[in-house]
Amino acid sequence: MTGRAGPRQERCVPMAAGSAEIASEQRTPRRSLGEQRHYGAAGIARRLEPGLSFAQGAQIGGAYGKCRMNILRTSPDTLTSPDGTPSYLPVRNLPDACVLGGLCLIALALRLPSLGHRPLWMDEAYTWWYASRGLSYLWGTVPSFESHPPLYYTIIHGVLQFGDSELLLRLPSLLFALALLPVIFLIARELMPGRGWPASLCAGLPVATIALSGFQIAFAQEARPYTALCLGVAVVLWGALRVLRRWDAIAPCRPWVAPATPEAMALGIGGGITLWLHNLAPIYVASVMLPVVCWSLVNRKRWRFLPVLSGAAAVALAIYAPYLPRLVDRTANWSTSTWMAPLTLYRARNIVEEVFALHALTANEYARLVLFVAILAVLCVGLWQCWRRVGRWEALLLGTAAALPILVLVALSLTMAPVFATRLLLPVTIPCALLIGLAACRLRIGSLRWPVAGIICAFFMMTSIRGYASQQNEPWDEIARLLKDQVKPGDVLAVYPNDVELPLMYYHSLTLPSPIIALPAAFPAVGLNNPYPYGTPAVPGLTRDDIDHLLTNTASAQRLWVVVRTNPASNDRALLERTLATYRTLNEHREMSANGIAILRWDKSLPKTVSVQD
Length: 614
What we know:
Blueprint: H1 19-27, E1 30-31, E2 36-38, H2 41-48, H3 54-64, E3 68-70, E4 79-80, E5 86-87, H4 94-111, H5 122-131, H6 135-140, H7 151-159, H8 166-191, H9 196-212, H10 214-220, H11 226-250, H12 262-275, H13 281-298, H14 306-320, H15 324-336, H16 345-355, H17 358-361, H18 365-389, H19 392-415, H20 429-441, H21 449-469, H22 476-486, E6 492-496, H23 501-506, E7 516-518, H24 544-553, E8 559-565, H25 572-583, E9 584-591, E10 597-604
Parallel strand pairs: 6-7, 6-8
Antiparallel strand pairs: 1-4, 2-3, 4-5, 8-10, 9-10
Helix pairs in contact: 2-3, 4-8, 4-9, 5-7, 8-9, 8-10, 8-11, 8-20, 9-20, 9-21, 10-21, 11-12, 11-13, 11-19, 12-13, 12-14, 13-19, 18-19, 18-20, 19-20, 20-21, 24-25
């Protein structure tokens, strides 16, 4: 029996017995359709188990009743294997390999420049200091005052066995960023399957937006865990999408057989490892898992998947369980002290604009607003195209993964403490890139697809070029060289906050003629009676007693050098300068960067009034 002809071709499973027909069915994969077909009990049983005779198939079919084959709503590239499950082989042909390989080379070329030439900035100095500790200290003590779990620092600890140059410290971030691109391509092929160069180019558009994004390039060149976090979120997103698109196809036909669990492993093991990469990683993992849980609950036929999904969640929680007490402690510390300014609507919009590097494109606020609205419109179009032409649950998955983390971070910033920062939106760029690709490649007017795709690529290429042009550094290597040349024997060198000593310690080859005095105590200064306005229990604020203690210990020094790093959450720098001006003369003041890093030289002299720049 053959199926009726339609706009797409389909061949129904033959009902009659015969090994030749079954063998032919196995050799020729059936192209799936976005509809349901009724099969006879014997035919569907023999389709699932080709070795059965017609009588055995009828007996099994009668035992389980008539089965309805629910075939995925995909394009003709989704093939059905002989056991009744859809077979996805996204990267299996020359166009796929060429597109993905070319984009990876472009991404590598954009991320390599300045990878080992730019000096470390403060957060990267934190990474170096943590990773240079022993593993027992790294896993036992560091989590008590560091906001991130120690997994990423353990990876860097292994890298440090081969050297501690800027290039080696940033190399893992580069590798994680490059590994992200194939995962995004796999997700795009699930959403936009097909054959030939057009399908491969469509699936490559989301990869191109990530490869060309100035926002992604900037974090791929930093020794921080955010590109690793993006890779973990992408793996969990891939697993969730495969659950939505594959499990529903095999559920009605084989209710007695548990579904294959590679997707569940991606959700369980991948989700558990991702949770160890950032203290706010549970927000991103939960945003991806929530649509899958809802998908399994709304339909009673899918309740059989709950044990598998519950097992995946249990695996993720078991992997993450040792860090949960530390997370609770760090949440309490963050809620009582933070360096971030309170969140406002204007600041929230600026942060979201920075995700698309709009500040690098134009300084005009109205132009940025127009571009921001245009990007939101493109994302909405992509979500609508996914809803209509791919699937509702797939659209809900991408929409939740893109919007829910932003909403949760905003809610935490308004109710507990400000946590809404630009770098925390890096994982959100993954579903946004997929929605942008769907918006361009699912246009009904085919002649507009490639011009729109070209405009999108040009836009993100411009963000990467402008991002390089507007890149700001913290010149700690230059500061270390200057101090080496200027600080004389007998001088005193003090730094505030105390974490300023970390980048100066990194450039230890530029030996300083004077030891560093960290104010109010050496890093990490945990458990002092001082306030902690910087969001970490290792960096305390400054009090008048600390300054008086510094003046007493340096009374005999002719010159006092102070390296300060201004923080908008504290006025300690102004207090320090006013107090020092009472006893010493400010003879040198160098602002080293736009981030508020300055070198001050206070000479011993009679008290007099000086002009101090707050």
